[in-house]
Design a protein that fits this description.
A hairpin with a 2-residue loop joins strand 1 (261-262) and strand 2 (265-266). The protein has helices at 2-22, 26-30, 35-46, 51-81, 83-100, 107-131, 139-169, 171-191, 204-214, 220-243, 249-256, 275-296, 303-317, 319-327, 337-364, 370-392, 400-420, 422-429; strands spanning 261-262, 265-266. With 433 residues, the protein is mainly alpha-helical. Helix content is 77%, strand content 1%. The longest helix is centred in the first third of the chain and has 31 residues, at 51-81. A two-stranded antiparallel sheet has the order 1-2.
Amino acid sequence: MWERFSYYGMRALLVLYMTDYLLSDPARAERVLGMGGLSALLAKVFGPLTVQQLSSQIYGLYTGFVYFTPLLGGLLADRILGRYRTVYLGCVLMALGHFLMASESLFLVALVVLVLGNGCFKPNIATQVGDLYPAGDPRRDSAYTIFYMGVNVGAFLSPLVCGTLGQVVGWHWGFGAAGVGMVVGLFIYWLGSGLVPKSASAQPANSAARAAETKQPLTRGEWQALAALVVLCALNITFWAVYEQQGNTLQLWADKRTDWNVLGFTLPSTWYQSFNPVMIVLFAPLLTAFWAWRTRRGRASTSIGKIALGSVLLGLGYIGMVLAARVVPEGQRGGLHWLVSTTAIFTIGELYFSPVGLSLVNKVAPARLASTMMGFWYLSSFFGNYLTGYLGTFYDTMPKDRFFLLLTLIAVATGGVIMLLRRPLERAIGRHV
């Protein structure tokens, strides 16, 4: 919960901090260590960038590498430190990164430290939940449900706390609050250290059996399943490129083009970042019940079908923003309902796409390659998050309705491609998976 509090607090403030403060003053931007070299490199690749475009690129790099470094963190835990100590290291690095944000000159250094800390933390904390239980223990699903709820509680609270402090009191108060949250999480982890597995729970015999298993060549069916997963990983890139705009261009719309006056109170625009996690908590049990009802009636959708529908729903959600851009005049503010309706639709799309995709990888990948394929799935999220930043550069150069229409078409087209490939993909992984 506290790690998500820290990450979503950072995400709520990052683009606004850069566009409204850090990069809006050229003299201030020049004092940031490494900013001149980074902006020159990006300009060499993409041409001259506005403040918004440079901010979008940095946002994409930051959120992208959040999904790349877990590959390194997993290796560090498996081969050198173990999961327990690697989680500790991740907590310390993330807290340090937030506190380094207090120094404007160390802004990029702080982002690097945060990314490295997240890489140590992310792949190992979730695995430790599974290590609490022996294989086949039915309590494991309930444990991950508690874990998932903690994730979304943290994601819901952080924009309300960090976002409000950052926008109302001062940017560094918001970043500092995220750091304090990470320290609280570290303290809780220390208090419960006697309950947490210090290493993987596998017995030596099991390890030997797995070592022998890895030497077995892949069967034709396993190769086909892996090929199908690689295709889905590639399509996963465009889904996240569109979805993660909520921390980038949608946050800019929330800040500049949305009226946050509610019952006489003007709310901070960073509260927008709480919409998605609270909707996940509300919609997830309803959607689970709906899927169970369809299963009882013999009409259960396959995983591929759900993933395709999730991408289409993500795109359809942005139609609300297309209409908002046409209805709300430039320089004026529209109602909250545009953001609420858009987020509600693509949150349902997320629930069809993301957890189903993770489950599919776990079910289909050969056991001896499951971790590797999960790493590929997260690696595709790295490319998707970076593409979020690249797509966001068009927010300044295109009419807003056409920009949001572009996002709609990308997501719907991705869903369409998955549907076109549905039968060969299902033959490869098993039709009823």
